[in-house]
Design brief:
It comes from Mangrovicoccus algicola. Residues 34-59 have a biased composition (Basic and acidic residues). By secondary structure, the protein is mostly helical. The chain has a domain at 9-55. The chain is built from two helices and no strands. The chain has helices spanning 8-31, 35-54. 0% of the residues are buried. The model has no long low-confidence stretch (mean pLDDT 85).
Length: 79
């Protein structure tokens, strides 16, 4: 016999944690990406962001009245 009584709930909780950790490790091996793959994906995202920023249109200056873009027949904001 052992000196201390064993708490079965703690034993079950510990066993579940170990099983979950083993399952997570197996999934990391099965579905995980290598460091090179992560780096390549990050660089591709940065490259796409720079490309998108390069194609950004400049907004008109604040306070500028751009009436050329209004649809015909829409009333003016001024009145």
């Amino acid at each position: 016999m052992t000196d201390k009584p064993i708490s079965l709930s703690k034993f079950r909780k510990t066993r579940r944690r170990e099983e979950a950790r083993n399952r997570a490790d197996a999934n990391a091996v099965k579905f995980g990406r290598s460091k090179a793959e992560k780096l390549q994906a990050r660089e591709a995202g940065l490259r796409e962001g720079r490309k998108l920023e390069g194609h950004r249109r400049e907004a008109p200056a604040s306070g500028a009245d751009d009436t050329s873009r209004r649809a015909p027949g829409t009333p003016d904001d001024a009145g």
